[in-house]
Design goal:
alpha+beta, conserved putative lor/sdh protein from methanococcus maripaludis s2 fold, six-stranded antiparallel sheet, 6 helices, 31% helix, rod-shaped
Length: 374
């Protein structure tokens, strides 16, 4: 009998707890509902936004500096000591491969041409001697040793000529001019230095009258067909940024870039560098300028994009005010990410519902006056 009474008492206790829990839940739900008439909405200036469907927001905008990959810049140096006679380009000029950049007057150029002329003359003489010795040997007039000596002399003279030609090529003389000197033609009084590849003249180290030594930098040329963007991202935002398979886009430029990765250091302003390679629109960018780019978020969780003013906070929780027949209900949501004036939230929202996006502070006051989350 006592055992049966105990079971009956436990059952009544469980029923009481269930009723109490349901009452608390209903009370909490009821406390998040508050009445607002259409007239009050109009006087308060409440504006509504109709939810359509969950979607991603465009990402966060950050400043980025246009930089040049190291492999895209080359320096035109003085191949010989001399004096810069004339500049044929200016800074920021676009140049093509083979285009003349400057004239360099060099005494060393004359010496190199003279060496080639002498080597070519000796080579022609040794070739003629070799042919004569071969004819005399064929007639049995001279021994074979004479032919072998002539062949050795001709080979040495030919090697000297090739060496002299290579020295002029390294100095920047074109093949036609080298051939003309080797054949005994006129020599050049100045060396014309030309661009090795297309690009933009980013800096002129030389000026007319400059006495340059061998290997001195004269012109810096950048191939701007391939550029990088160094994007400054706050450290606390790094985990939210997508890099793998993502695409960075320009805010006010028709530019697209592919993220390469984050830098290993943090700046004094607590930003970390995200480097991206420009894949479209490089021609609209200039080296060193800052542009605004939009970087996508890493989160793929489904959420609702809403304006920032639509979200209010109370007791460390986020809420949006959803329109009901009697007024509004404060619906708790989770903020997934934000960008500019948009924020993406997750909660018990449905397509077709209307949320408040204007005079939200007034609605919060009405809600808290009703009881709210307190």
């Amino acid at each position: 009998m006592s055992h049966r009474l105990t079971r009956r008492a436990l059952l009544r206790c469980a029923q009481g707890l269930f009723a109490l829990t349901a009452a608390c839940t209903a009370s909490a739900q009821k406390s998040n509902d508050f009445a607002v008439t259409p007239a009050q909405m109009q006087s308060l200036g409440v504006r509504l936004l109709k939810l359509e469907q969950p979607a991603a927001i465009g990402g966060q905008a950050f400043p980025a500096r246009v930089v040049l990959p190291p492999s895209q810049e080359y320096v035109l140096s003085a191949p010989l000591a001399g004096v810069v006679d004339q500049l044929l380009v200016s800074e920021n000029d676009t140049v093509q491969a083979g285009q003349a950049l400057l004239r360099l007057v060099s005494p060393e150029l004359g010496e190199l041409q003279l060496k080639l002329s002498e080597a070519a003359s000796k080579g022609r003489l040794s070739q003629a001697t070799l042919k004569r010795e071969q004819m005399l040997f064929a007639d049995g007039i001279v021994p074979q040793r004479r032919v072998q000596e002539a062949e050795s002399t001709a080979a040495e003279d030919q090697a000297r000529q090739r060496h002299a030609e290579a020295a002029l090529r390294l100095a920047g003389m074109d093949a036609a001019a080298i051939k003309r000197v080797a054949e005994g033609g006129a020599m050049q009084d100045a060396l014309v230095l030309r661009a090795r590849a297309p690009g933009v003249v980013v800096k002129l180290e030389a000026k007319p009258g400059l006495r340059a030594q061998g290997a001195d930098a004269l012109v810096r040329i950048a191939d701007t067909r391939k550029l990088w963007l160094d994007i400054q991202v706050p450290v606390d935002r790094q985990a939210q940024i997508a890099t793998k398979g993502a695409s960075v886009t320009g805010v006010d430029r028709e530019v697209t870039a592919t993220p390469l990765g984050f830098g290993a250091t943090v700046s004094d302003s607590q930003t970390v560098m995200l480097r991206a390679q420009v894949t479209r629109g490089a021609q609209t960018l200039r080296l060193g300028e800052f542009v605004q780019v939009r970087v996508p978020f890493a989160s793929t969780e489904e959420g609702w994009p809403v304006p920032v003013p639509a979200v209010v906070r109370q007791d460390d929780k986020a809420y949006v005010f959803v329109r009901t027949e009697q007024g509004f209900t404060a619906l708790p949501v989770t903020v997934l990410d934000s960008a500019g004036q948009s924020v993406r939230v997750k909660g018990a929202l449905r397509a077709g519902q209307e949320i408040a996006i204007g005079s939200v502070i007034a609605l919060k006051s009405a809600w808290l006056g009703k009881g709210g989350s307190n």
